[in-house]
Amino acid sequence: MDVITLGESMVLFTPDSPGPLRFATNFNKKLGGAESNVAIALSRLGHQTGWISRLGSDEFGLYVRNFIRGEGVDTSRVIFDEQNQTAVFFKGLNPGQDPNVFYYRKHSAASQLSPENIDESYVSKAKYIHLTGITPALSPTCRETIYHVLDLAKKHKQTVVFDPNIRLKLWSKEEASDVLSDIAKQCHIVLPGIDEGQLLTGNDSPEEVANDLLQGDTHTVVVKLGEKGSFLATKDHQQYVPAVNVSHVVDTAGAGDGFAAGFMSGLLRGFDYLQSVELGNRIGAHALSVSGDVEGYPYWNKMNTNNQEVLR
Amino acid sequence: MDVITLGESMVLFTPDSPGPLRFATNFNKKLGGAESNVAIALSRLGHQTGWISRLGSDEFGLYVRNFIRGEGVDTSRVIFDEQNQTAVFFKGLNPGQDPNVFYYRKHSAASQLSPENIDESYVSKAKYIHLTGITPALSPTCRETIYHVLDLAKKHKQTVVFDPNIRLKLWSKEEASDVLSDIAKQCHIVLPGIDEGQLLTGNDSPEEVANDLLQGDTHTVVVKLGEKGSFLATKDHQQYVPAVNVSHVVDTAGAGDGFAAGFMSGLLRGFDYLQSVELGNRIGAHALSVSGDVEGYPYWNKMNTNNQEVLR
Amino acid sequence: MDVITLGESMVLFTPDSPGPLRFATNFNKKLGGAESNVAIALSRLGHQTGWISRLGSDEFGLYVRNFIRGEGVDTSRVIFDEQNQTAVFFKGLNPGQDPNVFYYRKHSAASQLSPENIDESYVSKAKYIHLTGITPALSPTCRETIYHVLDLAKKHKQTVVFDPNIRLKLWSKEEASDVLSDIAKQCHIVLPGIDEGQLLTGNDSPEEVANDLLQGDTHTVVVKLGEKGSFLATKDHQQYVPAVNVSHVVDTAGAGDGFAAGFMSGLLRGFDYLQSVELGNRIGAHALSVSGDVEGYPYWNKMNTNNQEVLR
Amino acid sequence: MDVITLGESMVLFTPDSPGPLRFATNFNKKLGGAESNVAIALSRLGHQTGWISRLGSDEFGLYVRNFIRGEGVDTSRVIFDEQNQTAVFFKGLNPGQDPNVFYYRKHSAASQLSPENIDESYVSKAKYIHLTGITPALSPTCRETIYHVLDLAKKHKQTVVFDPNIRLKLWSKEEASDVLSDIAKQCHIVLPGIDEGQLLTGNDSPEEVANDLLQGDTHTVVVKLGEKGSFLATKDHQQYVPAVNVSHVVDTAGAGDGFAAGFMSGLLRGFDYLQSVELGNRIGAHALSVSGDVEGYPYWNKMNTNNQEVLR
Amino acid sequence: MDVITLGESMVLFTPDSPGPLRFATNFNKKLGGAESNVAIALSRLGHQTGWISRLGSDEFGLYVRNFIRGEGVDTSRVIFDEQNQTAVFFKGLNPGQDPNVFYYRKHSAASQLSPENIDESYVSKAKYIHLTGITPALSPTCRETIYHVLDLAKKHKQTVVFDPNIRLKLWSKEEASDVLSDIAKQCHIVLPGIDEGQLLTGNDSPEEVANDLLQGDTHTVVVKLGEKGSFLATKDHQQYVPAVNVSHVVDTAGAGDGFAAGFMSGLLRGFDYLQSVELGNRIGAHALSVSGDVEGYPYWNKMNTNNQEVLR
Amino acid sequence: MDVITLGESMVLFTPDSPGPLRFATNFNKKLGGAESNVAIALSRLGHQTGWISRLGSDEFGLYVRNFIRGEGVDTSRVIFDEQNQTAVFFKGLNPGQDPNVFYYRKHSAASQLSPENIDESYVSKAKYIHLTGITPALSPTCRETIYHVLDLAKKHKQTVVFDPNIRLKLWSKEEASDVLSDIAKQCHIVLPGIDEGQLLTGNDSPEEVANDLLQGDTHTVVVKLGEKGSFLATKDHQQYVPAVNVSHVVDTAGAGDGFAAGFMSGLLRGFDYLQSVELGNRIGAHALSVSGDVEGYPYWNKMNTNNQEVLR
Ligand SMILES: Nc1ncnc2c1ncn2[C@@H]1O[C@H](COP(=O)(O)OP(=O)(O)O)[C@@H](O)[C@H]1O
Ligand SMILES: Nc1ncnc2c1ncn2[C@@H]1O[C@H](COP(=O)(O)OP(=O)(O)O)[C@@H](O)[C@H]1O
Ligand SMILES: Nc1ncnc2c1ncn2[C@@H]1O[C@H](COP(=O)(O)OP(=O)(O)O)[C@@H](O)[C@H]1O
Ligand SMILES: Nc1ncnc2c1ncn2[C@@H]1O[C@H](COP(=O)(O)OP(=O)(O)O)[C@@H](O)[C@H]1O
Ligand SMILES: Nc1ncnc2c1ncn2[C@@H]1O[C@H](COP(=O)(O)OP(=O)(O)O)[C@@H](O)[C@H]1O
Ligand SMILES: Nc1ncnc2c1ncn2[C@@H]1O[C@H](COP(=O)(O)OP(=O)(O)O)[C@@H](O)[C@H]1O
């Protein structure tokens, strides 16, 4: 197993056309979930990945599990919950503005994830553990699960990659900042977006954000900068890595998760950090020109790795 | 005001085509809610109705309020809740079987309805109060609200019409039976479906069900019998009232609510009980040939009341 | 040229799903028009047909012309009107009931059809002239046009086939009955539905209806009887001709026009009247199992004429 | 009542995808009508508004009435016409060009609006009367109705706001110019688009247009300038008011009506003219990023009035 | 591994609404393929299954592989072909008639399947081998592959289950009959539809068909009889097994494959032949009430095995 | 007859929304085919055109024939093939990238086109013959057919217009270059895109490409340069002709075919070469703002020929 990740995936409903959701008449069903995005992107890039979660024992739970399994991700540790439901959410599109998101995830099956749901022998086989800042916001047991996995990773000397992914619909800035800072410093690699870095550190520039986060066990930070690319910082090397040029941005959702997948893919292939960040930038860019989170991630055999352009 | 009702309405998502929901790709947005069904049907029949509820201060809350208001129902007492969301639900269609329903209504705005949300001066103006057995299943405060409204109705000498509407996805048979029996006997008119009557009384036949329910303040019971019509029972008169013949049944949802509306419409027009039940049967029949709960209810001016046939 | 017909064709909008039109959100665009139905059905059966009309010089006019031309019907005499529009109509489907139709055809381009629009040398080349009772209801000039064509047919000794096609949304029973009776007796072959025959003659049975219509120039009457088939009457021969058995009736629109086409196709092939009526019944039956007027008419080479079953 | 407006609303059909309408296969149903746009926008901004009109007693009439009523606009004076139909129109979208519009509104129910349909006691209660230049183009009785309402407003000393809204599909430039100039000078506030101002006055610049229109009873003119904002002119003050910056313009329909609503909302709130124009500009801008006329108008409680940016 | 099957799967396009395909405007994408149907149905029933095939290295190949993999079927032996494409087909629905099917599968990737593509060590692990009569019709190399697999099964003493599945669009009756008879007698269990049995044996009754097919290695025959259920025949026992009663038949496609899966599931669970046929009947019935081949197959944990009714 | 062209037309399926085809759920049916594009565009411009081809005797063949016939193109020489199918193809849209195209045209009916299918008396009546480089790539008999038509054109002294239209999915660069160069020099007018010109001649600049192609019978070359317009070259005159400015490019498919039609339309109207190229540029520009190949071509009576702007 190359990478194991855990978190909540949901069914996403998006209307056919932009505008306020109350006027939408037709909705399409899609998959949403940062961690499964990463697992799927990694699987397409040729890596063995596992996704751990809880889903409702309902139609939407089967949809989520089968979609992710269909992408080649190992879902053997997904637990079907007879008591709680698979979460759903709705996303209204407003051209030129942030999407309008409505979650129905309180008391969802995934929010009941707890340390007992984690199979140590399974987790211990992964080269990398990928965690996000969404999971600890879901419930106290989810938060405990994250800490439990951090302990296991320490015990098994696994590298932990952390994407803060702050969702202010789920908790307050203060609580998010406290908890995520604490988690971040127990992770070896931290991949904040610049806004998240600012929120976590109180600093403004990528340089300062990165320096602040390079503490505890954290030896590498990459600050994601959207169309400006990313900023790579280890204790002894720091550098801006420009983005791939994308002419038609359709939907930015999934770019950050694509970055994480590309970056880990680089590391798994033995690329150095710079090359891995470049690969992260490329996979992030692939997410942009398609509506939906995972639809844009490329298969490794369709990519021309000598070519800086996004090929599809 | 002719009738005031209160309860939860939700956004309903139904797929384009029948089959398990996990394979559906396109969903349509509709309105769902037994009490708003009754209010809408009554409004089309020419009566002044008010619907009391709480909705999330979100896109779906506006959709629900505007739809119901658009139908001519007074929504001036609807409260928009900044903390809790408008509920949604999904309904999978399986030809020849019961639909497969998934609710996302726990902790919804409507479940926070409480006695303080009831404006006594508003409620006291109605000739009839309409309640259903769904509301007390939603939360303790909802249950208190029902009892509070019963008290107000007593104080203002209003007639209360009760539709047990047992939803076993919301509570156990035992709890439902206890609570609803207690409520029923404080209501003047009770309109159970035959299954509900059986569950509430432990009896089998419409006659026995009706006799059992004719207790406390209850002076009239109509047992709804689907394609067999209904059974009318007062303390001194009992009679089967045959259904209108409907050749193409598309969707039975909303038939019971249509019955309640037709029956109350009859009473409001000064019809006797038998005529009112006949009108109930006719409005119930109108709901059957259209997908959606409220789409089929007729406008009074499109109905030929001398004609036993369903006209549209 | 085998058959020339003239009349109005319109764009038809039908909702995706049944129910009152005010709740429909998606509409499909189709072609509607009794005379073009006949022309199209005849063309598929291998005959040369021409359709004369006026259309608005607008997008919908091009749609109608191109659709009909695409079916192989000669549209060289269609006039594009810069002043008046192509008509549209909407059809709401109510399972088990008649569709709910809303026309927007007043002052349409076709209603401006007048005798000057008729090219005598073109019309005179046809073996059969097909007229319907819709055209004289559209406007005084349309009515004049019908009488003008009757004169031309007389002059050129052509057989005129008349389908009364009474549309009570367009005129009163009295006016329809007066005008259409007068036209009918100048036509050689009259093809009423049984209801129309009753309205025109005041009689009940197919026999009486036919006898009454066998006057003036009319030597042959076929009364269409829906699932009971049709009743053929000439001055010296009368006979019921049973319908083809159709298990799934989806949409009855277009059956009568299919009958007319099949019947004329038989005559054009040299079939006797009975065989021609049988072919009419078969083509009528083909219209039933598909939504839309013309979609179901068969191509001659897909029909097995020895086989009484509807083949497709 | 804050504002009363009167005019025609129609059902609008737009295709799913851009291109000539003859190739479109799926159409969506929406609401169209300048005056109801204004009433709806005002209602969302928190004002009591009434909309007077005639609708066909048909499915589309109910759709239009219920939609507008659902938005909180008083429709108690809408008359359902048993004789004439609700109008419809079709709009083809051609990227980068003006939409291609086809009306079916001749002899519509609304075109039969006449002075007797106006309830003086109702109209007299409004602080503002809103009129557009579309209504007088619909029919002679509609034109009389406008003059009748002007008389009533004079009698009851109400402020009349006039949007010339010239529709050259309905009448000639000459007739439009004559009639609308005459009406404009009887209105207190005139809100022409720059093109309309040019047509009415024969002048080019906003300054000249405004000066010319400041005659008769007209004391305030605002010339709408699209992305350049608007030009405010009273007898003693004139000023350009820049537009809100909108990055993604999806559909400009409804911007002018949003401006009128925002401007009147300002006046109703006691804003000065400049502030009211600024609010007009903001509401106009909200209409741009959504397809459909009314979908984009904001609710007052979702707007941050200290913020010049369009918030949604 | 419980069952291994091999064959071609394709992308199926079906129109939104019934009628001739030339008038359809919207098509939905689905999965089609008898062998993957069986594999998916078995997987839902709780068995480990593998599906061997070739797919084009194209979007549709990924769709097919991911769909099947998502259902829990092992696809590790699927070969992506850079030269040849994934097949597609179109299915027009005509109510009350057989669907109209158009294949685009000549020279498809799957038709290039050849003995070298078969991994003996993989195949040898299965308890059952499932083959259909479609594969040998695709190409000479496909036919060789079937014989090669029969040889491997013999060598490894595996039970072979054969569904003749005669497709007359792919080859002539004569060729089909010759080849399939030869294959059938090398298989232990043969599951013909009654029509297929008639074609293979020249006999009429289920009894005669079964007796004729009980030759060579064939020790068990089940003749599928549609709504009449099935006829089970071993050398010493023969019996009709009635079908489950299904009130709404939506789409019969996939019933035969569901039967095969249910029957094998019974054998794998240690059921006797009769019980296995009963389970086959039940799973076949599940396929009928949903459009699409695989959408209706049930999960084992949703079935109440004590209940003869189809539960879903 | 003004122009006769011959080649393959196919049914094109495009998804509702951009992104990889494997995630698309709804597909729309359209027409595709370079030669029928040219014939349709010419017909709309007022010219008599004929399109020769073979189609499968199936639903899609009827769709293609009827669509093209509906556009006014003579299809009397289209042959329906009982053995081979009408081709289909799928086109995935990726914003900002080339579409992803999948053909199912091997062994199609059109690929069986052969010299015997060409009716000399029909072909000899055209003023211009239009050929493309797609046809010779389809099969040896198609290639022979092209040479046969070239011979007929020579015999009847007709002008041949050739669009190289190189499709590298159909053959190799080398084969394409050899065959097309040979054909080009037998044609009087050659209309390559700049890429095609480069591939055929090995040169870079429009000037060099044109000079190289001005050999054999070729007396005029126009190199199409996309948004840069085109380069006109005869033996004694060479000139760049700027494109029409198009603000919103939706779909570039069909631009080259529109150019060819506009150019030939000019020649047929007696325009000089420069004017004809200008008309070509204008018609090419019309194709750009609409999705689909032929949807954007204008009708002659909707064009203001004095106006350089694209009018629609
Ligand atoms: N507009 C863009 N153009 C090119 N690349 C982009 C663009 N937006 C995002 N990316 C790429 O995707 C990566 C992640 O996107 P970003 O939006 O920064 O992540 P997050 O959503 O986690 O904040 C960026 O580091 C960059 O490489
Ligand atoms: N199949 C039917 N045919 C005719 N009328 C029906 C049919 N089903 C319901 N109705 C009418 O609607 C009323 C309410 O329907 P029912 O299904 O009994 O209510 P509930 O859903 O509350 O149990 C019935 O009393 C009857 O008059
Ligand atoms: N339900 C049916 N079953 C079989 N054939 C039918 C059916 N309905 C109509 N037809 C055939 O179509 C013909 C015309 O249909 P009909 O409904 O009688 O015509 P019209 O619409 O002109 O009254 C009939 O004569 C009959 O042959
Ligand atoms: N492109 C735009 N950007 C920003 N604001 C705009 C734009 N177009 C319109 N508006 C705003 O909407 C108002 C009305 O739009 P306009 O198009 O001028 O009205 P009308 O349609 O009545 O001519 C303008 O005054 C301006 O404030
Ligand atoms: N109409 C039906 N009602 C109930 N069961 C059916 C029906 N049609 C098929 N089945 C079940 O599915 C099984 C397979 O269907 P059948 O149509 O006989 O297979 P095939 O398609 O292979 O010929 C049958 O043996 C029966 O058990
Ligand atoms: N972006 C564009 N803007 C304006 N005109 C264009 C554009 N693209 C193509 N055209 C016009 O269409 C013609 C043909 O388009 P082009 O793409 O060059 O053809 P082809 O597809 O055959 O290579 C061009 O010569 C030009 O006149």
Automatic annotation (TrEMBL), chains A, B, C, D, E, F:
User: Matching Gene3D superfamilies, A to Z?
Assistant: 3.40.1190.20
Q: Which UniProt keywords apply?
A: ATP-binding, Kinase, Nucleotide-binding, Transferase
Which ranges carry the Carbohydrate kinase PfkB domain?
4-295
Q: Tell me which PROSITE patterns the record gives.
A: PFKB_KINASES_2 (PS00584)
User: Which InterPro entries does the UniProt entry name for this protein?
Assistant: Carboh/pur_kinase_PfkB_CS (IPR002173), PfkB_Carbo_kinase (IPR050306), PfkB_dom (IPR011611), Ribokinase-like (IPR029056)
- Which GO MF terms does the UniProt record name? kinase activity
* SUPFAM superfamilies per record: Ribokinase-like
What the entry lists under CDD domains is as follows: KdgK
UniProt KW Acetylation keyword: no
Signal peptide residues on this chain, from the entry's feature table: none
- The reply to whether DNA repair figures as a keyword in the UniProt entry is no
One Pfam family, short name please?
A: PfkB
Q: Which PANTHER family match?
A: HEXOKINASE FAMILY MEMBER, PSEUDOURIDINE KINASE-RELATED
Q: Which family does it belong to?
A: Belongs to the carbohydrate kinase PfkB family.
Q: Can you name this protein?
A: Sugar kinase
